[in-house]
Amino acid sequence: MERSIAHIALFAALIAVLGMMPRIDLISGVPITLQTLGVALAGTVLGAKRGFLAVLLFVVLGLIGLPIFSGGRGGLGVLAGPTAGYIIGFPFAAFVAGLVVEHWRKVPVSVSAFAGAILGPVLLFSVFGAAGMAIILGKSFAQAYLLTLPFLAGDAIKAVLAGLITQTLLKLRPSVVTSRAEGRA
């Protein structure tokens, strides 16, 4: 129990740190950051439930005012900006990534983690992000979805990194990768 809590807190902190890395702002107002890599890793390393909880902790801490969202932002005001959909989608993306790794046990973890990071933190982010931008920017969903396309190349690179990092952690510290530990004898 204590180990799970520590892992959840550690990954919430990792996501915050990755959001402090230099960002690139797009014309839509949505920045490209490494924060989404942290979301992917929370799911691929911790699994669906713990990954969801780690990212939910991160989101709640940011919404109550800690300056942990990309660029040092925090507070409920971020939900009035173009990143609102992404922030709301963070925990669900980690859940999906973790679910894939937990259930695709017959393939190497690098493959399942990559696939999980594509299905959650890439595809699901696009849907949540486009929905948020459509509402905030007053655009149709299709118009807003087009604004998410510049993220896909970077997100694909982050998905590859999530696969490689998860595989490396599994080799070096198998007990840390709880997405694969559950169900093992």
Automatic annotation (TrEMBL):
Its main location: membrane. The keyword rRNA processing does not apply. Keywords: Cell membrane, Membrane, Transmembrane, Transmembrane helix, Transport. It is a multi-pass membrane protein. The chain crosses the membrane at residues 29-46, 53-71, 83-101, 113-138, 144-165. The keyword Lyase does not apply. InterPro entries: BioY. It is found in: Cell membrane. Pfam families: BioY. Belongs to the BioY family. This is Biotin transporter. It comes from Paracoccus cavernae. The lineage of its organism: Bacteria, Pseudomonadati, Pseudomonadota, Alphaproteobacteria, Rhodobacterales.
